[in-house]
Structure formats: C-alpha cells, structure tokens
Automatic annotation (TrEMBL):
Function comment: Required for the first step of diphthamide biosynthesis, the transfer of 3-amino-3-carboxypropyl from S-adenosyl-L-methionine to a histidine residue. Diphthamide is a post-translational modification of histidine which occurs in elongation factor 2.
Organism encoding this protein: Dimargaris verticillata
SUPFAM superfamilies: Chaperone J-domain, CSL zinc finger
Span of domain DPH-type MB: 97-153
Pfam families, A to Z: DnaJ (PF00226), Zn_ribbon_CSL (PF05207)
Name recorded for this polypeptide: Diphthamide biosynthesis protein 4
Length: 159
C-alpha cells in the first residue's frame, strides 16, 4: 500500500499551525533535509525522521517535498485550497459523518447481535456488540458511504 503524507507532516506542524510556526518549521526542515548536508552526516542524526515518521525517502526527494509543502502552505489561498482538498479526501476515504445517534435510538437485532439505525438512502447504519466492546463509536451505512457517531456510555461493574 502506498502511503500518502500531508504537507503538514513533511514540515512537522499541525494543520492548525499559524503562518510563522509553519515558516519556522520550513526553515528548520529545509536545513535538515538539504542534500548537500547529508554527505557529512550519519544516518542517526536528527535530520532524519524517527521510525514513527513517514520518510523512508532519499534526501533529495524529501528536500523537494519540504519545498513543495512550503510553497503550498505559505500562501493563504493555496493553503485554503489544500485544506479543502484534504477535507474532501478524508470524506471520500472514510465517509461523511451524517449525524449523531444515541445507542438507545438504535434497534437491537438479538439474533445478529447488532444495533441498526435507518439511513436516508434506505440502508442501515450497523454496529455490532463486538464493535461496541472494542470501543467503536462510528457506524457505517451498509449501502452508502455515510456514517453516524453513536453516543453511549460504558457502564462498569462494581467489584
């Protein structure tokens, strides 16, 4: 599977970061990733990302991606367009959250051990007891891409 990373990740900033924080991060990252700097560095310097970061790329590629990230995020208009693109990508990837529903509003099918709630498309939002036990709080429609957040409280047994 090909991983896709955001310009924010390449600059190591949050999507809510202010302009000056992004600029400062860009200046630091461009120095860290500049290909000319890596002939003197070892693979264990802070210029390279740690194991939790998405950069197993040659330095020149990473340097260019950092430059592109700054190009997009430095402009208010380009950043707004990019943020809209990310929001659209998130919705297409994970479906749109349509509503919030209480677990008590859902119908329980005891045979299948599932909670069901009708979707506007004619399908049903479905959440199994096993999903609930694992802490799930989003139910996907069985027919379309819409999702609902299911609100419920976990009741703990007293010892």
């Amino acid at each position: 599977m090909v991983e896709h990373f955001t310009h924010y990740q390449y600059l190591r900033v949050a999507p809510t970061a202010e302009y000056y924080a992004i600029k400062r991060a860009y200046q630091q990252r461009i120095l860290e990733t500049h290909p000319d700097k890596h002939s003197q560095r070892t693979a264990h310097t802070s210029a390279l990302p740690d194991a939790n970061e998405p950069f197993a790329e040659p330095h020149a590629d990473l340097f260019n991606k950092v430059r592109l990230a700054w190009h997009i995020l430095q402009s208010t208009d380009r950043r707004k367009a990019y943020d809209a693109y990310l929001k659209d990508l998130e919705a297409r990837t994970h479906g749109i959250i349509h509503d919030e529903v209480g677990l008590d509003e859902m119908d329980y099918d005891s045979d299948a051990e599932e909670y069901l709630y009708p979707c506007r498309c004619g399908g049903d939002y479905m959440l199994s007891r096993q999903d609930l036990a694992l802490g799930a709080d989003v139910a996907q429609c069985t027919t379309c891409s819409l999702r609902v957040v299911v609100e419920y409280q976990v009741e703990l047994d007293d010892p």
